[in-house]
Amino acid sequence: MNDTICAIATSQGVGAISIIRVSGEEAIAIVNKIFQGKDLEKVETHTIHYGHIVDQEERIDEVLVSVMKSPKTFTTEDVVEINTHGGIAPTNKVLELLLENGCRMAEPGEFTKRAFLNGRIDLLEAEAVMDMIDAKTEIQRKMAANQIDGKTSNLINELRSDMVQIISNINVNIDYPEYDDVEIMTNDVLIPKITKLKEKIKKILKESENGKIIKEGIKTAIIGRPNVGKSSLLNTLLQEEKAIVTEIAGTTRDIVEGQVMINGILLNMIDTAGIRETEDKIEAIGVEKSIKAIEEADLILFLLNNNEPLTEEDKELFDKIKEKKYIVIINKIDLEAKLDRTKLEVDSSRVIEMSMKEQKGIETLKEKIEDYFHMQEIETKDPTYLSNSRSISILKRCLQRVEDIEKSLQEEMPIDMIEMDIKNIWEELGTINGTTYEEELLDEMFSRFCLGK
């Protein structure tokens, strides 16, 4: 943290402008060594200066240099950003000169890591920086912006604040029993407070299901026997010929993927190989992948052929998915109906009819998916949710421990023992926004960031 780091902050490649970011105690002095123009060590903070980057007497590039002095910067350290022309050669040459003059190459995410360690942002806000960079939809952008602004952190801070109040009251009761103006924390008094805390956590977790959908999309597997129209459905939704379509059963031997957006939410579509018994080794591998896709999917689109009787394979497939979220699609309604639907015990609200050949039923399918995942509600609400698996898994553990405390109180466990349990949960909640953290966690998390961020 005492050294000065640098990295290219813009995408590598040819462009109009590249930005090289420098942060640390020696940032201004190091850049000043290779800058021909004003003396950067004497300029005002948050100012931009025209000049040239030079290597001794040779001019390398014409640049604009932004000087931002501590503490009002992203990292809270002195920060300099050099705007060069966007070619690969000039950008790399400027970076090379910075390294020769005392900078160290930044690790992935190190600028954001310094912002966190220096107290400018918390861990949730740091994670949201990468979410903002990765955002593909408008609602993903909104959710990341709310997290960067600290709105999501406030959810955790409020939980911890409620717990501090409970812990403080218990401590006063134990240490100063003579105080009359502090609420006496008996089991009967504490149970409603713990129950209220439990309901708050449940509410955050329930709403965070939306956050996961917004951030990661809905993993959607298209399944069915060979030649029922799975690849045609994928191509129709993507509006491109992504998967090969023929009349030959078993044409799709591996999974084919694509993305489609419905009401601002991404559907990560997987066209699976037709699931059937096969002697073909390559096709068998595809079938195995299809079965794995079913297990991992958030939504199953199960295709049946209207022009064929229901088979035992269809029934076996349905048994694999009936505990998951699914929609049954009866395809080829333009052909003679030979499918006896009564032999498949399925809620009629989960069944739609389609004809991929005549492009019938596509909008009905999209509307069904919207209703299934309450997409309209997600779109209209202010998206302030936990959205990453790390935070959600921690909060789930905390919920389990709060439920254990509730049960212990009902069994008349002593208050002083309960106080320790509450304090442990309070500390674990702090790992969500980084109030408490382990260095190993930070290294792993920030390693997923891009260089220069």
Topology:
Blueprint: E1 5-8, E2 15-23, H1 27-33, E3 35-36, E4 47-55, E5 58-68, E6 79-86, H2 88-100, E7 104-105, H3 110-117, H4 123-134, H5 138-148, H6 151-175, H7 187-216, E8 218-223, H8 230-238, E9 256-262, E10 265-271, H9 281-296, E11 299-305, H10 312-321, E12 326-331, E13 351-353, H11 362-372, H12 375-380, H13 389-410, H14 415-433, H15 439-446
Parallel strand pairs: 1-7, 8-10, 8-11, 11-12, 12-13
Antiparallel strand pairs: 1-2, 2-6, 3-4, 4-5, 5-6, 9-10
Helix pairs in contact: 4-5, 6-7, 6-14, 7-13, 13-14
Structure, explained:
This protein has helices at 27-33, 88-100, 110-117, 123-134, 138-148, 151-175, 187-216, 230-238, 281-296, 312-321, 362-372, 375-380, 389-410, 415-433, 439-446, and strands at 5-8, 15-23, 35-36, 47-55, 58-68, 79-86, 104-105, 218-223, 256-262, 265-271, 299-305, 326-331, 351-353. With 453 residues, it is an alpha/beta fold. The strands form two sheets. Strands 3-4-5-6-2-1-7 form a seven-stranded mixed β-sheet. α6 runs antiparallel to α7 and α13 (389-410) runs antiparallel to α14 (415-433). Residues 242-254 have low confidence and may be disordered.
